[in-house]
């Protein structure tokens, strides 16, 4: 759980898989230390609630929890299925997302903006928003990627840039504050981001700074695309107003690698996520399809039939 809290593991799909594996680990630790069922349930709850905004974590823990009484091997097998399903979903949503983007843009090759990290390092494999970028690159349709650095922990510059470099995809890293200008100057054809929770009305929670990109896209007339596997769609959350926003330690803002970069005594305000209203989203993509949010549109079609109300 410590790795989840400290963001050693981060990215909604990766959190889901880690949470499922975490239940198996808790069972092993409990057996070694002689926990009773009450203590085990407390520890499983701690894993489930470690990151409140990303719904995939709670979803995966809830999926494996019914198998606890069947033993650790059964829980582990279900966790492995969750990881395998995520890669399959990511590759399918990448194809669907790329098709939608090519049908709704005209400039070729594409200039793409992305925020935070949504590739293999944030999923079990391939990626969501960055998976779409990879799919477009494989089709020869990417000219340049503008990767926002993603303050305060720099997931864009540390992780996304590394993944783009490994794939040979042309890109530049820009400070978060440059994104709006880059869009308004006409340098971007589409922005693609991930999501940590998608409400039933299409509002989405993602890394802090995402809503600023969405607003700039709206002003610039640039499509703003959200990509995530279907477990990220939370039909029990009616709108973004109901999404709990994780508030992290202010020291992540006032310090860099433990070095103080603000005046002594200054406090940091550090919400980890923000919510983008559906009205600013051009398309939401899961492996099951693409929905263009609008008045009265709900996300039911983006989750399996058996999970719909």
Descriptive notes:
- The chain has 309 residues and is an alpha/beta fold.
- It has two domains: 2-83, Four Helix Bundle (Hemerythrin (Met), subunit A), CATH 1.20.120; 87-307, Translation initiation factor eif-2b, domain 2 (Rossmann fold, 3-Layer(aba) Sandwich), CATH 3.40.50.
- Helix content is 40%, strand content 16%.
- The protein is built from ten helices and 13 strands.
- The chain has helices at residues 2-5, 12-33, 37-48, 55-64, 72-103, 129-138, 155-167, 179-184, 210-220, 251-254, and strands at residues 110-114, 142-148, 171-174, 190-193, 197-199, 204-207, 224-227, 233-234, 255-256, 259-260, 273-276, 283-286, 289-291.
- The protein has a seven-stranded mixed sheet with strand order 3-2-1-4-7-12-13.
- It is globular, with a radius of gyration of 19 Å.
- The mean pLDDT is 94.
Main features:
309 residues; alpha/beta; Four Helix Bundle (Hemerythrin (Met), subunit A); Rossmann fold; 2 domains; seven-stranded mixed β-sheet; four-stranded mixed β-sheet; globular
Looking at CATH, the homologous superfamily of the largest domain is Translation initiation factor eif-2b, domain 2
Shape: globular
C-alpha end-to-end distance: 31 Å
- Unreliable residue runs: none
Rg (CA only): 19 Å
Main pleated sheet: 7 strands, mixed
Residues in helix, %: 40-55%
Annotation field: number of helices: 10
Number of strands: 13
Named CATH architecture of the largest domain: 3-Layer(aba) Sandwich
Count of individual domains: 2
Class derived from helix and strand content: alpha/beta
CATH class of the largest domain: Alpha Beta
Return the average pLDDT rounded to an integer.
94
Beta-sheet strand percentage?
15-25%
**Widest sheet, order of strands:** 3-2-1-4-7-12-13
In the CATH hierarchy, the third-tier topology of the largest domain is known as Rossmann fold
What is the ordering of alpha helices and beta strands?
HHHHHEHEHEHEEEHEEHEEEEE
